[in-house]
Amino acid sequence: MAAKRITREYAEISESPPSGINVSLDNDNVHKWNVVMAGPEGSPYAGGTFHLSLTLPPEYPFKAPVLSFKTRIYHPNVTNDEKGSMCIGILKSESWKPSSKILAVLLAVQDLLREPVPDDALEAQIADKFKNDRPGFERDAKDAVKRWAK
Amino acid sequence: MNIRRRGSDATGMDAGRRQTRLDATHGRQVVFCHACLNEWYRNERAELTCPCCIGDVVEIISPGFDPRPASQIPEELQTPSRQNAQWAPELAHAHAHAHETVHMPTEDDQPISPSPPYEHEPWYPGPNGLYVGPNHAPRGLRRRLSGEAAMNDLAAGMQAFLEHILRDGSRPGAAPFQATFSLQRGQYGTIDIANHFNHAITNLPNGAGGLAPNLDAVYSQQAMDRIISQLMNQRGSDGPPPALASDIAALPIKKLDEEMLGPGGKGECSICMDDVEIGTEVVVLHCNHWFHKECASRWLNEHDTCPICRKAIGEATAVNDVPGASGFGRAGQAG
């Protein structure tokens, strides 16, 4: 079931990709997608290009996809390391549901870049800065984009 | 082996200041046992286990980091007359059986063979051939006063915590751990806590114990965090619990009709995303969302939530017993 549904979703997204998002398969493997996401306009990530890796487990859609940033990013909800693990509500095991689509997951990531969720942070220091020193946060995020996401 | 306390004429390294703390600020590392509040110099003992209780919940104290609680000993307990407490013989015996509950000497324990205090020697031979510091003996008393309550609280808290985590996550065949925590008031259970906690972790159903390379100790905050999050994940990574097989079997099967189609007049199972033709048998949840029977069963066997709206079918069964509570007129919510 997984491969059939994934192929269908891949076709849908490829045919009409949402703005700022491009997907391709990693070595023709439908379970591993390469995602390229533009930093959303109006966010400190604007102008950056972020590569993400989307892994769809064999049990998909009964198990949630796994998404990580390959491009390093300064963001409260993404680990600021080479792993780039991220914390996003739709993918949490307690909130995942099989009717959630990959498109919705990718749009949720875009939303997360526009609006971080500091109360559900993976990087506490960045979350603190986001909450208490927004200009400082935006400056640091922009610097990080210049350094890592150009 | 008996350990004697020096008398009131003590003139040790700590004389002149409060005699309850070893000094960690002068280049010698002090190790502190969270279980029995004992402390000792690290260069006197290579292993990071407590020479007093063999506990391994110990921490190295540095000048910038001192986890030792502020002094807790009432003054009267530090008077010389009370400082003749000794290692009870049964304690020395118990050290050979670390899994047994240790009975620590209490105020009521009479000194068995009072001996004249050592003079001018800051260190005394302790059990296991080790040396203990000049402030050692009152710790039995200290433990009685503050340690016992603290340890009982800790034990109760840890037990509740583990039970909470493991209750929902336990599967048929998983060993119940609750029984391993059996602290009794009046006994000193520090060793039991450490051993049983590790025992519980070692026996976790999917081998979380692999985290600790040496299964009887965690030495750092990070290691502890790792174990805690492993335990949390064990429960959390599964998401909501499965639906009852009887609830799944009781779900109505209907032939798909036009009223059940989505807004576009198209029938699609939102689990496998395959098209579903009119007349195909589908299972209908209480929320009126429908799916292929196999698709819905596979999900419900793992999680009792509607694949679309996450309403539990168990919940819905209960709610449906209330007249008028079912969702009439909500057809057309096809995925």
UniProtKB/TrEMBL annotation, chain A:
**UniProt keyword Cell division present:** no
Q: Indicate the segments forming the UBC core domain, all copies.
A: 1-150
Report the EC number(s), separated by commas if there are several. 2.3.2.23
In Gene Ontology terms, what is one molecular function of this protein?
Answer: ATP binding
The name on file for this protein is E2 ubiquitin-conjugating enzyme
InterPro entries membership: Ub_conjugating_enzyme, UBC, UBQ-conjugating_enzyme/RWD
User: Where do the TM regions start and end?
Assistant: none
Alphabetized SUPFAM superfamilies for the sequence: UBC-like
Entry annotated with the keyword Transferase: yes
- PANTHER family per record: UBIQUITIN-CONJUGATING ENZYME E2
At the highest ranks, the source species' classification is: Eukaryota, Fungi, Dikarya, Ascomycota, Pezizomycotina
Question: Which species is this UniProt entry from?
Answer: Calycina marina
TrEMBL record, chain B:
Tell me the enzyme class: transferase
- Keywords in alphabetical order, please: Metal-binding, Transferase, Ubl conjugation pathway, Zinc, Zinc-finger
**A family per Pfam:** zf-RING_2
Which GO cellular component terms are attached?
Answer: nucleus
UniProt keyword annotation of Zinc present: yes
Q: Source species, please?
A: Calycina marina
Checking SUPFAM superfamilies in the record gives: RING/U-box
Reactions catalysed, semicolon-separated, are: S-ubiquitinyl-[E2 ubiquitin-conjugating enzyme]-L-cysteine + [acceptor protein]-L-lysine = [E2 ubiquitin-conjugating enzyme]-L-cysteine + N(6)-ubiquitinyl-[acceptor protein]-L-lysine
For this entry, the protein name equals RING-type E3 ubiquitin transferase
For this entry, list what GO says about its biological process.
protein ubiquitination; ubiquitin-dependent protein catabolic process
Ranges for domain RING-type come to: 269-310
Q: EC no.?
A: 2.3.2.27
